[in-house]
Each structure stands twice: as C-alpha cells, then as structure tokens.
Amino acid sequence: AKVVCAARTLNEGDHRLLEGSLSGTVAQIHGAGGDAIAVAVDVSDEADCRNLTQAAIDAYGRVDILVNDAALTYYVPIVDFDVKRWAKAFAVNVHGPFMLSKLVLPGMIERRRGAIVNISSGSAIGPGRGPYREAGRGGTMYGATKAALERFSQGLAQEVAAYNIAVSAVAPSHVVPTPGTVYHKLVSGTSDPRSEPPILMARAALLLASEPAAKVNGRITYSQQILGEYGLIENPAGRGVTTKGSGYSQI
User: Fold this and answer.
1) Would you kindly state where each structural domain of the chain is located, as residue ranges?
2) How far apart are CA 94 and CA 56, in angstroms?
3) Superfamily for 62-229?
4) Annotated catalytic sites, by residue?
5) Using CA atoms, how far apart are residues 16 and 28, in angstroms rounded to an integer?
6) CA–centroid distance for 94 within its chain
7) Interval 202-223: pLDDT, tens
8) Can you tell me the distance from the alpha carbon of 211 to that of 8, in angstroms, rounded to the nearest whole number?
9) What is the spatial distance between Cα 93 and Cα 144, in angstroms, rounded to a whole number?
10) Quick one: which of 54, 149, 170, 209 is 20 to 30 A from 125 by CA?
11) What angle separates helix 96-111 from helix 140-159, to the nearest 10 degrees?
12) In sequence order, which residues have a C-beta less than 8 Å from that of residue 174 and are 6 or more positions away?
C-alpha cells in the first residue's frame, strides 16, 4: 500500500497533551512492508488541504482513496461554548472533508473510480428520543458536526454515483481507545469493556474503500455492523447491530 499520512502532529512530543505522531505511523507502515509519507496539515486551512493533495500526487501520481478522519471536539455545554471554538470544530470536522473531497474528486471522476470514506460517530444520531431527565456531558457540538458529515456523505455519494466512485461514512460501534478518547475519559484504555479494538474501524474503512461502488456508495454504517454483514467478525455488537443489554457507550 502507498499511504499519505496527514495530521498536525509530525513528531512525537509535538502535541502538548496526546501521544502519537505521523513519523511513528509512517515507521509502522514501512515496517509492515508498505510505502508512506507524512505531511503536516491543518485540515481547517484551505491552503494546507491543497498542499496535502499536491504532495500525494507528487509522491504517488494520484489519489485513489481518501479517508477523512480528522476530528476536533470540546465537551462544553452550549450555553458556555466559545463561538470561535464552535467555528473551528466545524472547520475541522465538516469543512476539511468537503475541501479534501473537492480536491481529489476531479482525478477520480476522470479515472472513473475512487473511494471517499468519512469517519463518523454514533453521536451523529443524538441522545435518543426525549423527554430527558439527566444532563448530558456537552457533546452537542461534536454530534452536530458528525450529523452534518453524514448528510454530506450521502449527498456527495449521489452526486458522483455515475462515476463509479464510492462515498460512505462509518462510525465505531463502541468507543475506540485512542489517546484522545482516553484523555476525555470516554474509555480507560484498551482493556475497557466498553471499547472496541482500533483494528475493527481500520478493517471497516478498508472494506468500504475496497468494495465496488455499486455495493457501498452512500452507505452510512458502523464498524461491527458492516464487518458482521461480510462475515469478517464473530458476534458483532454495539451500534448498528441488534443486541440486547450491551451496556456499551459510543462516540
């Protein structure tokens, strides 16, 4: 595989709170026999998005698959939410996928093939039917951006349906333990029974990027739901899967 890894954190220690880096991810890909480059980017910035797209084309000639997984969240009640932070979150979570999709689509349309996979969240569907009696934890903004991303995904899928391009969105069936979700105390780590292994989301995204567009274009799904449909996981559970009393939390 040839992979262009993009994020704000190029080297370990660049982020003041969270572990992980692009250089570390690239090293892992090389170690597994793949080819990869790292590009530092802020997806809320149009110039950065253009530079990222050009770097991918310069390195590998074209973009066949785009995975939009950058995300920004603040768990703050709306009454206390800073307007600039609200705008920044939508810039990262919605405008970034829009801009990158817009930049890679001309090549995909010309070649009559390609895939765009947007990483969503169970919070896109909201906290369920009211009335509510307990206060939420302030995830309204994040859920709103992910709902917008899912609507964008389906609308774009319809626009490019004639070009053999698959646009889809996938959310984790349970919280995936990452430095970010652990920092926000959504899960305690990989041993938390409320979590699911990161490999499941990776496999789900790869499946959506690999299947014929006629099968997955416009699909809004969950990791264990789609893996279960294809027989790639035993005993799927969580969002998108009909189970009783799972007790899992989602993001």
Assistant:
1) 62-229
2) 21
3) NAD(P)-binding Rossmann-like Domain (3.40.50.720)
4) 142
5) 22
6) 11
7) 999 999 999 999 999 999 999 9
8) 30
9) 10
10) 209
11) 20
12) 194, 195, 196, 224, 237, 238, 239, 248, 249, 250
